[in-house]
Amino acid sequence: MNNLLCIYLILCTLHLTFLSEGLPRLSHTTKLLLMPALLAYFLSLQTEGGISTLLVTLALLLGTIGDAFLLNNHKGKLFFAGMGSFFLGHICYGTYLALHYKSGVYLLVAALFLLYPLFRIIKSLQVPPYGVCLGIYATILAVLIALSAGSGSLFCTLGAIAFSFSDYFIAKDTIGEKTYSPTAVMGTYTLAQLLLILGILSIQGVW
Known about the structure:
By secondary structure, this protein is mainly alpha-helical. The chain has helices at residues 3-20, 24-44, 50-69, 76-99, 104-124, 131-150, 154-174, 182-203.
């Protein structure tokens, strides 16, 4: 196993442990190291260069910025800043996957399958002042899942789905409907980012 991937997995384990044990300084420190570690792993195996590498690099850097904004809570101005960072990151991932589009059938099936759940989710999140922003955010996640399916990568598709769960947990906490465990939020998030990167590397024929 690649040493840099091991470092990412170790950081994930440490972060989730510190989070579950209520150790904020250590959990915050490890959280901010997660995406840079994953980026280092990705770049160590990079073969494409150009716009493809730039898009994935930006997605992970924006993930780091989003992590920083959401260190303490999921409400207020910092929440919108964090959500904006992840939104842009999803656009970067989506653009990469659109450039590596392979199957219109998979994309169409995924899009049709997501229509009803997306409608229900958007409807459930319509709580001022977050409703419109959360609705747009949910839509971009659905697009990301469809593009992942269209790329033919199972890893990317599962990663986008895991991202949806993580962000749904955060959204429910934000509107005050239900508070999910921070370990559940970060567990699905770190898995999502890893699966997306492994999927992208598999598209490149590296992994």
